[in-house]
Amino acid sequence: MACILKMPSIAGKGVVSFTNIEYFRQIKKIRKNQQSIEELRKKWVICYHPNWEDKSFSDADFFDAIICNSESFAFSPEIRNLRTDQKILGVASNRMTPPFFKRGKEKIWDFCHVSRFEKRKNIFGFFDVVKAAFELRQELTGVLLVSVSPKDLSKLRERYDSVFSEREKSQFELISLSYDLPFPLSKKTLATFYNHSKVSLNTHIDEPHGRVVGYSLACGMPVVGFPDLMEMVPMKFRCEPFFYTSQEAGYLCSKLISAINYVDSSYRPDIHSDVAEMFSGAVQSELLKNKLIKQFKLDGTGWMLNDLDFRLSQHYGGLENKNSSKLSIRDFLWILSKCGNEDIVNNILNLSEIAKPMHKSIWEALQDSWHSHFKYSLKSFLRTN
C-alpha cells in the first residue's frame, strides 16, 4: 500500500510514497485534477517507489523524490536532466534487510533459496542446477522454500520426486508452503535459513533487484545465478566472490560448487561486511530519512521507518492479501489531504490487516508530532504574555 514514512507536524510536511502499481493503475488517471493534487502537496512530500526495474519513467513532475537505486531506475532519456536525476535518492526497499539476517557461525546447508512457484521464478530450472551439481559433489546439502498455491502443489512435489533420488532428497529438501500466501513465514523464520547457509542459489529469470538477493548479501553470502541479479549493486561488487554468475544455465552447477569452495576455504568476512552494510535496514532507512530531511527541510518528528523492506512495496487498490488493500487510491488521497493525523490512523490504517503491526510506531509518531505542537504553542504563549 502507499507507505507513510512521516506524519505531518506543526513544523513541516509528512512523507508518503506510492508504488508503480498505484501510479499506473490509478494515480496517472487522477493527477489531471490539479486542485486535489495541490491540496495533497500542502501537507505531504510525495515519493515514488517502483517495485520493479524501470529505466524509462516519463512523469518527472508529479513525484518530489524517487525511492530507488540508480542501478534499477532512470528517467526517460527525452526528459532526463540534472533536476530529474537529483530526485533519485539511491535507497530502495530491497536494501532494507531486517536485523534478523546476519551471518551465522554454524552452517547447516551448502546452499539455500526462498521463492514462489511461478514461471519467472524458474523453480524447475533450480531443480536442474541442483541435479547437475550432485554429479559434481555427491555430499552437497541444500534447502529450497517455495510458496505455492494449493492447485499447483502436486505439480511441484511430483517434479521434485521425479528429478531426485531418495538419497538426494535427504540432502536437498524442498519445503513447500501452500498457506497464508504470498508470505507464509515471518522474516525472522526465513532468516534462519539464510544465516545458516553458505551460498544463495537463485535461478530467477529477469529479476534485477529482488528482495531475496538483498537478504543474501546482508548475510554475507555469495549469490549464484544469472547476471541480471547483479544490477542492484554498484559495479565494483558485480564480480566474484560476491556473485558467481553465468548467462548459460548449464554452467551454474559449477559456479555453485566454486562459491561453496570459496566459503569453505578462503572466505573473507571483511570484504563482505561492506556489502552487508549496504543492505542493512537500520543503516539504509536512516540514510533515507536524512536525505529527505536535507532535501525538503523536514523536521525530525513523526518518522516511521519500521518494516520499510515490506511497506514500501505494498499498494492500495489491488487484491486483498498481505501485499495489498482494497481501499481505493482516490479515497486514500482524499483522507491524506483533508484529515488530521488521528483521523489518518482511524480511517486508513484500521481498514487493513497489513497495517496492524504499524500501529505502535504510528501512535509514537503522532505523540512526537503532538509533543512538537505543544512545545511550539507553549513558546508562542510565553512570547505573547
Structure description:
The chain has 385 residues and is an alpha/beta fold. It has helices spanning 20-30, 34-43, 82-85, 123-136, 153-163, 166-171, 187-195, 211-218, 252-265, 269-278, 281-296, 308-311, 329-338, 341-347, 359-384; strands at residues 3-6, 14-19, 44-49, 54-57, 65-66, 73-75, 109-116, 142-147, 172-177, 197-202, 223-225, 243-245, 315-316, 324-325. The protein has a 6-stranded parallel β-sheet, with helices on both faces. A 4-stranded mixed β-sheet has the order 1-2-3-5. A two-stranded parallel sheet has the order 4-6. A hairpin with a 7-residue loop joins strand 1 and strand 2 (14-19). The protein is elongated, with a radius of gyration of 23 Å.
How much of the sequence is in beta strands? 15-25%
Structural Rg: 23 Å
- What is the CA–CA distance across the termini? 46 Å
* Percent of residues in helices: 40-55%
Give the uncertain stretches in residue-range form: 351-363, 369-385
**Can you count the beta strands?**
14
Order of secondary-structure elements? EEHHEEEEHEHEHHEHEHEEHHHHEEHHH
Helix tally equals 15
Mean pLDDT over all positions:
85
Strand order in the largest sheet: 9-8-7-10-11-12
Q: Overall 3D geometry?
A: elongated
**What class would the helix/strand composition place it in?**
alpha/beta
> Largest sheet, if any?
6 strands, parallel
